[in-house]
Every structure is written in C-alpha cells, then in structure tokens.
Fold this protein.
Amino acid sequence: MSRIGKKPIIIPAGVDVVIEGGKVKIKGTKGELIRDFGSNVVIAKEDGVVVVSAKDGSKQARALWGTVRMHIANMVTGVVQGISSQLQIEGIGYRAAVDGGNLVLNVGFSHPVVINAEPGITYKVEKNIVTVTGYDIELVTKLAAQIRRVRPPEPYKGKGIRYVGEKMRKKVGKKAAAGAK
C-alpha cells in the first residue's frame, strides 16, 4: 500500500479540475496544466478532493500510484501558488541579465549564453541571484538545471552557477597537497 498514494488531494477554491479517463486538466489563477496519466491508475474527483487508487493489484499500477498522486498535487500547487527556483552565480565578471524575456548569462565564455524564454516562465535577476518562476514544476526545474549546467560550480575556487543553499565541498589545491607530503 502506498502511503503517499492513499492521501487525498484537497482542491482549493478557485481551482477547476476536470478528469476524463486518465487525462487530468487543472485550471487555476496562475495557468492551466493538462497531463495524461494512462490507464494504470484510477483518478476520481469526490466532494472537493481528488483521490488516486491503483486500478488493479499489478506491480506497475502499485508502482505508479504514489507517483501519479504527487504529480497531480504538484500541478494543483503550481496553478495556485506558482513554483520558483533560485540559482546563485559566483565568480569575478560572471553576471546575468534578462533581455526581452530571455536570460543572458556571461560566465567566462567568449560569447554570452542565451536561455530562451518558455511559455509560462519568467526570469528575474537581482545582483547574483537568478529566479526562475512559473506554474509547471517540471518546466521550472528543467530550466533551472539547464542554467546550472552552463557553468557548474567547480570545487577549487567555488566559481560557477549553483542552487541557492547548495553546499559545495572545496578541495585543497596543489600547494596544500604538496605541503602535506
């Protein structure tokens, strides 16, 4: 039995949920999300809550039960509150700017790196903090990972792009390692 899958998803006021077979459509103040979950789980709307259950006792249905429930809960959270991810840029001369909705990164390459704006996503830059905001959690986290991948933090000087709050263990350099002999 899935502990997460058993929990009902409470639908807040102002959110419209339409379920047609395995297809779920959720509309809220921030936007609208549509997702098809297939036929392995049963999704039902009852008295202001969404309940997910395994269709049969098959291994695949039980494996997807909690996952589908969390996807629907994340969709509801996204259309009500919105989702944001913050990244921190470290390094001398490293900077970011928003140009026409696109994110422009100058992080030590001979050319600026442009991350194109996706529908429903906004970028905001304050000093060395880049904030990616939207209503689809999958798209927000995918773009945040794509931005981090442009210049991952390196372990010697700590330069690069990292998530806010991400801990990096610094390595000792050549001189400190040679002095230990």
